[in-house]
What we know:
Layout: H1 2-25, H2 28-33, H3 37-46, H4 56-75, H5 84-107, H6 112-135, H7 147-175, H8 182-207, H9 214-227, H10 232-279
Helix pairs in contact: 1-4, 1-5, 4-7, 5-6, 6-7, 7-8, 7-9, 8-10, 9-10
Organism: Fibrella rubiginis
InterPro entries: TspO/MBR-related_sf
Keywords: Membrane, Transmembrane, Transmembrane helix
Amino acid sequence: MENTKISRWATAVLVVGSIIGTSWLTSRRNRKKSSEVAPVFEGELDANLTTPANATFPVMWSSIYAGTLGLAVHQALPSQVNNERYEKASPWLVANYVLNAVYGSLFSHGEKSARVAANVVTIAQLPTVLGLHQALEVGKTEVDEPEKTFQRTVGLYAGWTTVASGLAVTNLLIEAGYRVGHKQAEPYAVGALSILGGIGLAVSKKLNDPYYLLPFVAGFTGVAAKQYGRNDLVAGVAGALALTVAGLFAQRIQEAKTDVTEQGNDAVVAQAALDEMAEEPYYIDLD
């Protein structure tokens, strides 16, 4: 029991430290101190037509970090020592935020080797987030607050890491020398976005987690905003994908609410039947 408490708090400290360190390393103030690091990295990202607008990143990461900080602290509380979901989730949380710290360190450098390594680390984070998602039984087990909110955060994190991994794959292709002009790159970007959207819909259904879809809405919206007036074909496809995924997200949320209502109604009917049976006298025929 005591070892579990220590392990949980160690996990919380690691997560908090990783978030603080990564935020500092990737902050604008620190990048300015690093000479031409940021422009080089951002130039490579701009060469990729599937990169969302810059504003998309802080919006998503602030939501993910806030929720994960809450999860890290909550899983360390004495009242949660016997929470088996948290026990299973702890190794995945540690692995993910170790990689998160590595990414932050790599992002603060601008040379090609660091850019390639950062993209590889991004892809490596995906199985750790999906493992965390599985360990917390998101979409499988109904839990009370605040754990329910943390489950939704992990859904967001899993979706965003999937989007980021898709971006990382195309970045690695660019780094490997597969470069063409923006006009020639449009069909490839449209194909990549469409494939990513299909993956998002399939995985969300498999995970039974509508919140997994929200980062796809944010990512596609960011691409549409960035490419509008530059590459209108890419912007149009990204915008259409954002609307489609947003509509499916709303539909699945409504379906989930309907299921909960029906389950509640079934429980009320069952309880009423039990109450009626308890009130009615019954006789045993001994003949």
